[in-house]
Design a protein that fits this description.
Structural class: alpha/beta
Oligomer: single chain
Largest sheet: 6 strands, mixed
Bound molecules: zinc ion
CATH class: Alpha Beta
Order of helices and strands: HHEHEEHEHEEEEHEHEHH
Length: 339
């Protein structure tokens, strides 16, 4: 069936929390935007350009502290859903995939770490959406409290035009990331591992990280924006204190985490920061996401690319690229946890 809810298409895939906002800047030349804003991602992007490409597997480096000056706007202006194409007919986990995931035997429960620099550290990975959400629209459409307001429990997510779903993508990248972090000695928990029919709801996704006392949490997504919009961005929690949401304690550490993830992601993948949000920084700040609002642990979202853009889709459907993406995230998390 076609997508449900305003989250599936348009500028933001919605990270499970719809409704999305209009883009906040009008997409001027990337170089202009880059010049003025947070240097973390920019530095890595420029370095990548200079050294000539992605693919290196060098160990994580601690990135220079970035400017705290730009929040790139923390607005959450709701907007009408974009009436973009619905790309019917190939939704769900039966959709063709250019490079199918390789499911690994696993459970979503935490596993004991062995040894390594992250021994004793807990990381929760949140694979955005769920391949089964398409079949459980009533369940995922019910509203949950996200502190600032009420929103849908979860959404279907987006897909490439060829039908590779965001939910497939997020599970695959999350499993790769889990392996990399476990190799570093971390204890890793997934909020879902394709082992439940739908969800979890965004509030439960946050609670899983909280209950695990996670040292870092990352929610993995890919965007569903207009063709021509390209690149990745990391979403940081705004400082929110409203109802059951209080991110005042985690906003700072989450920014640190997000900057490190962004810098390492662009180095590992060679992808440029988003050309349609974040002013070229690869960073965005939002207060309308339950998964961030309700977190008590340092947490970020990453939108790895735009599934609706053919060039980005070619990357997102490549297993080799997804491995680089996972490596970049892992390097960023390791950098954050090692300080
Ligand atoms: Zn998403």
């Amino acid at each position: 069936m076609s997508y449900v809810g305003p989250d599936s298409d348009g500028f933001f895939d919605g990270d499970g929390d719809g409704p999305r906002r209009p883009r906040r800047f009008s997409g001027g030349p990337l170089t202009v935007a880059l010049a003025a804003l947070v240097p973390t991602a920019l530095a890595g992007w420029l370095i990548w350009q200079v050294v000539g490409g992605p693919g290196e597997n060098e160990p994580a480096k601690t990135l220079p502290a970035a400017s705290r000056s730009s929040t790139a706007g923390a607005g959450a202006e709701p907007t009408a859903p974009s009436p973009s194409k619905s790309d019917d007919g190939k939704k769900g986990d039966g959709s063709p995939s250019a490079t199918p995931s390789k499911p690994k035997p696993s459970a979503s429960s935490a596993k004991p770490a062995t040894s390594g620099p992250l021994k004793g550290k807990v990381v929760v990975i949140d694979p955005g959406h769920n391949p089964g959400n398409f079949r459980h629209t009533a369940e995922i459409n019910r509203l949950v409290d996200i502190g600032t307001n009420r929103k849908e429990c979860d959404t279907t997510g987006t897909s490439t035009n060829a039908g590779y779903t965001e939910a497939q993508f997020t599970l695959d990248v999350s499993r790769r990331l889990r392996t990399l972090l476990q190799q570093q000695g971390a204890t890793v928990e997934l909020t879902q591992n394709g082992d439940r029919p739908w969800g979890p709801c965004v509030d439960e996704r946050a609670r899983i990280g909280n209950k695990a006392h996670a040292d870092a949490v990352i929610s993995v997504h890919a965007d569903g924006s207009a063709a021509g919009n390209r690149g990745f961005h990391v979403i940081l929690p705004a400082s929110v204190n409203s109802g059951s949401a209080n991110t005042t304690a985690i906003a700072g550490p989450s920014r640190d985490l997000g900057e490190r993830v962004a810098g390492n992601f662009l180095r590992a993948t060679g992808s440029a920061p988003s050309n349609y949000i974040g002013g070229g920084t690869g960073l965005d700040v939002r207060k309308d996401l339950g998964g961030l609002n309700l977190s008590t642990q340092p947490k970020v979202f990453i939108e790895c690319g735009n599934m609706r853009d053919a060039k980005d889709a070619a990357l997102l459907t490549s297993g080799a690229w997804r491995q680089k993406a996972a490596q970049g995230m892992s390097d960023g998390i390791v950098s954050f946890l090692r300080g």
